[in-house]
Design brief:
The protein is of the alpha+beta class and about 100 residues long. It is built from two helices and four strands. Strand 3 and strand 4 form a beta hairpin. The N and C termini lie far apart (about 35 Å).
């Protein structure tokens, strides 16, 4: 899990381990970013969209106006066939 810069310090516990919050229904790229530990999900209902950070230690959510915008180019694409291949291989070996 990659965490944010030091200025994104949690106001509740003081941890510098925080992630950007993603609001709304996650598409494929957002789901992959979540699997890679690059973002945290805020929820599909965008009622607290002003909150943009989540602490990795205490789960506190807060608004950090100085937080950097998430760079979507950091998400490594997954080859769609690799996950299917792993599942098929596991099924084959289990029989």
């Amino acid at each position: 899990m990659r965490t944010g810069p030091a200025h994104c310090k949690c106001p509740q516990c003081g941890s510098v381990r925080s992630l950007p919050l993603f609001w709304g229904y996650p598409g494929d790229l957002a789901q992959e970013a979540g699997r890679q530990g690059l973002i945290a999900f805020g929820g599909c209902m965008i009622d607290d969209a002003h909150l943009n950070r989540k602490c990795c230690d205490c789960s506190h959510r807060w608004e950090d106006p100085d937080a950097p915008v998430f760079d979507w180019s950091t998400v490594k694409p997954v080859r769609p066939w690799s996950a299917l291949w792993r599942r098929l291989r596991a099924l084959w070996q289990a029989r």
